[in-house]
Sequence to fold (192 residues):
Amino acid sequence: MDPRILRTRTSMQTALLELCREREFAHLSVSDIAEAAGINRSTFYQHYPDKETLLADALDSFAEQASAHLESVNESAQEADSRDTIYKFLSHVRDNVGLYRTLLSSSGSPVIVARLTDRMARLATLGLSQPEAQKALAVPVNIAAASIAGAVLGVIREWISMKPLPSAEKATEWAWAAIVSPMGITPNTTGA
Fold:
């Protein structure tokens, strides 16, 4: 792709994402986006037919960047490392909460949500593929990984809908509980 085209599209995507942090996507116009990107409306339409297509491209790029936060998990992660990774990712979500509210809303992109869920599941698979983890599983690794991805995404959706927004630390506690002990029920280990 021509570097000028790439620069213009990147500028438009960045402008849109910044505007989504301030206002809801539905309240943004092509003129708002073009002005923030430093281009005119005709240039906008040379690159995208509408703001929804730009949003899909921008969210796709954003999901790529967001997944980099998830990919800091290494194959031999211990519990503390896993919790820290979740915290780092949720801090990233907190810092971009307006965008995640758009991304994970009913008007968000199902393709982007599916891609983000798939990335979470693939990363969970890394940790679950360790021999110690496999011994503890009652279900196949891919089922457990999908469950973890769904649980974390569910926690994120509920967390970012709260006002005021609880801390990333609190959301990490909730996500960890959802992963380790579904439904927040602590197993009875005393035998009683």
